[in-house]
Design a protein that fits this description.
The complex is a heterodimer of chains A (about 325) and B (about 350).
Chain A (H helix, E strand, L loop, with lengths): L1 H30 L6 H5 L5 H11 L5 H13 L12 H36 L4 H15 L2 H15 L17 H39 L2 H8 L4 H38 L5 H10 L3 H29 L1 H6 L1
Chain B lengths: L1 H10 L1 H18 L1 H4 L19 E4 L5 E6 L2 E6 L4 E6 L5 E14 L3 E10 L17 H37 L1 H15 L3 H11 L6 H31 L3 H9 L3 H9 L4 H24 L11 H5 L5 H6 L5 H24 L8
Helix pairs in contact in B: 2-4, 2-13, 4-5, 4-7, 4-9, 4-10, 5-7, 6-7, 8-9, 10-13
The chains are: A mainly alpha (about 325), B alpha+beta (about 350).
């Protein structure tokens, strides 16, 4: 019961945050000297009626506060307007968001599966050559610009022909069986996932190593050792549980970092995700699309933090006590 | 304190190498006009995408000779439909050191003509090839580095005062002020930083001079990072403000601003230094990412990011690998900054010494 109450409180807290985010984004975008309807007007396939409708919907002839109110009202109702090519923004987002989520979730799972054990190992073998070499490798991983790594891998893909060059699906995707589709998508995901994996692995491994070193230094671990428990039990039964807990907070941060990192990677690999969508929208100054994808990015980030917090409440009774 | 940190840095093997590497890079960037054989805007349209020049020190007859190079000539192979570059062996171009070449203004002030190395007037030396406009990649690397390697620092100098003051005020007053200020900071942090970056960059009006654009990009980079930094400062201030010396200052009648700036914020110095060195690389990376997308530093100005823009084309990455050199430089300098940052953290924060 106590937990549920806390979780609900935490969820309610996100609402004012979202409103504030939308106000900030709205004003930044309205700062731009570009006419929000310029692209729409230039497009011959869009009738002046649609343009006029859009002007009415955005309330462009009214003061900016009213414009925001209009925008927020239709946003809550799920009406996100049309893109400069006349498509529905919500439709576009529906296509792109799952792709970005797919990419980031796979990367998070992979980094945790690899990064946490590597962090533990490095802590247990602290100051051995193994630890040193790992530190060097993670430093290298942290220093490569994500887009540069993506370009290098693309070069590799083009030269060897072992991997598809960008995109998410092959041209004949529609005709494939379910299994074929699954394999096709996985095949296309290998390189983007690899880039983001390398970039985010380093931070996670270092954090895990630091936590583990902290815990291994604590009194109860010394006590467990003193009482004659095997090293294996000390590390994996006593120390590990406490070292993993703070990592959950990191989950939210990692998600935030990945959303940003994914934008450039998606761009290089021509991956149909939210990051590339917002980039294309920005380059075409497609205001509706920019605003909507910015909000969706923020929603995803806030949701990621929320999930991390809730997980933490469930796993760590100390936090419940504080609340 | 600074002297102590530096001596300890020098003792660390990795940090020493990193310091030397960065020292060489910055020295080269400082003397860029002199080291680069060509000026930033020099272009030879007939020499687009020329591969790196080869420098010969042994001539055809096998004798040691003064270093010389051949010009490239473009040839079209009608069989394979490829453009090929071949040496024009008819004429040797000797490399001349410290001799007169293209005029430039050293550091923008002192007019000079001497370059570290050039060739005679008919020859061209492109150590790292040329780009699509026939501009020397090596020279542009040096000029671009000036922008890429300073923009991060400048952004930090804008961002840290803002973050310090914001976090300081928020933590010192607490209560409602704190709640409102922190909600705002959290909202800024809730927008994926790269999304915010590209949107702010796209809002910039076109038709600015390159200096204006540079300053605005510094400002944008600073706008991205202040919130997270302010939050940490606020946490530190919260724990400091109840201490006795702060109470003492209050009783004497010091103003709130004075207490924050003179008494509380200095407590955060070592954290600030560590945070600064650790965040320089992320700003270098942000700038290069932004310019890579074409939203940062614009042509004809060079930055490592916008030079890599050409690497977006398949034909370039496969047939013209020399265009990738800016990427390696970004990598090396970010790595060096990271190593130094890690070491400084160990020195200033002994508690974390066991950690990394």
């Amino acid at each position: 019961m106590e937990i549920l109450k806390y979780i609900i409180k935490r969820i309610l807290q996100t609402i004012p945050l979202l409103i504030l985010v939308s106000v900030i984004s709205f004003f930044i975008i309205r700062l731009s000297p570009v006419d929000p309807l310029a692209e729409l007007k230039l497009n011959p396939s869009i009738s002046p009626v649609t343009v006029e409708k859009e002007r009415q919907r955005l309330g462009l002839d009214k003061p900016i506060i009213v414009q925001y109110g209009k925008w927020a009202f239709s946003f809550v109702q799920g009406d996100l307007g049309v893109t400069s090519t006349g498509e529905k923004v919500s439709q576009k987002l529906k296509e792109r968001i799952p792709n970005t989520l797919l990419l980031t979730i796979i990367v998070i799972l992979l980094t945790w599966l690899v990064g946490v054990p590597l962090g533990i190992l490095a802590a247990v073998k602290w100051k051995t050559p193994f630890d040193r070499i790992l530190t060097v490798f993670t430093s290298i991983g942290m220093a490569i610009p994500s887009f540069f790594l993506a370009v290098l891998l693309l070069m590799f893909a083009v030269k060897t022909g072992w991997f598809p060059i960008g995109g998410l699906t092959s041209p004949d995707y529609a005709d494939m069986s379910f299994c074929g589709k699954f394999i096709d998508i996985s095949y296309h995901l290998v390189l983007p996932v690899f880039v983001l994996f390398i970039i985010s692995l380093a931070g996670l491994q270092r954090q895990m190593r630091a936590n583990m070193l902290d815990v291994l230094d604590s009194d109860y671990v010394k006590f467990a050792r003193a009482k004659g428990l095997s090293e294996f039990k000390v590390v994996y039964k006593h120390a590990l549980r406490n070292a993993v807990n703070p990592m959950i907070t990191l989950l939210g941060f990692e998600f935030a970092g990945l959303l940003s990192g994914a934008a450039l990677t998606e761009y290089v690999f021509q991956y149909p995700g939210l990051g590339r969508l917002i980039l294309e929208a920005v380059l075409k100054s497609d205001i509706n699309l920019v605003m909507a994808s910015l909000m969706m990015g923020a929603v995803m980030l806030i949701a990621g933090n929320l999930i991390a917090d809730i997980l933490l409440i469930i796993t760590d009774p100390r936090i419940r006590g504080k609340a | 304190m600074i002297k102590e940190v530096l001596t300890q840095l020098w003792k660390d093997k990795f940090a020493r190498v990193a310091l030397i590497v960065l020292g060489i890079i910055y020295l080269m960037l400082f003397f860029a006009d002199f080291i680069a054989p060509y000026t930033k805007d020099f272009s030879d349209r007939t020499m687009a995408y020329v591969p790196p020049s080869k420098v010969f020190t042994i001539d055809e007859s096998g004798k040691l000779s003064k270093p010389y190079t051949y010009n490239y000539v473009r040839e079209f192979d009608s069989q394979t439909l490829e453009i090929k570059y071949k040496f024009d062996r008819s004429q040797k171009h000797y490399i001349k050191f410290f001799s007169k070449g293209q005029p430039y203004k050293f550091l923008g002030i002192i007019p000079m003509k001497r370059h570290l190395f050039t060739t005679d007037s008919g020859g061209r030396i492109f150590l790292l090839g040329t780009d699509i406009n026939g501009r020397d990649v090596f020279s542009r690397l040096l000029f671009g580095g000036r922008i890429s390697m300073t923009i991060g620092f400048l952004a930090l100098f804008v961002l840290f005062p803002i973050g310090l003051l914001y976090g300081g005020i928020s933590g010192y007053f607490g209560g409602k002020v704190d709640a409102v200020m922190m909600r705002f900071a959290e909202a800024v942090m809730s927008i994926p930083s790269f999304y915010l970056l590209i949107i702010l960059a796209s809002v910039l009006p076109s038709g600015m001079t390159s200096t204006q654009r540079f300053m605005l990009i510094v400002l944008i980079l600073a706008l991205i990072g202040w919130a997270g930094f302010a939050r940490v400062v606020r946490g530190m201030v919260l724990s400091v403000r109840t201490q006795e010396y702060v109470q003492a200052a209050k009783t004497i009648g010091a103003s709130d601003l004075r207490i924050i700036v003179k008494h509380i914020l200095p407590q955060t110095t070592s954290f600030v230094i560590v945070a600064m060195t650790l965040s320089v690389p992320s700003y270098i990376l942000s700038e290069s990412g932004l310019s890579f997308l074409g939203l940062g530093i614009q042509q004809p100005d060079a930055s490592w990011g916008n030079m890599l823009k050409e690497a977006q084309e398949f034909t370039n990455i496969i047939y013209r690998p020399w265009l990738l050199t800016p990427g390696f430089l970004i990598f090396v300098s970010v790595l060096a900054f990271n190593l130094i940052g890690d070491t400084i953290r160990d020195i200033l924060d002994p508690q974390s010494k066991i950690r990394s």
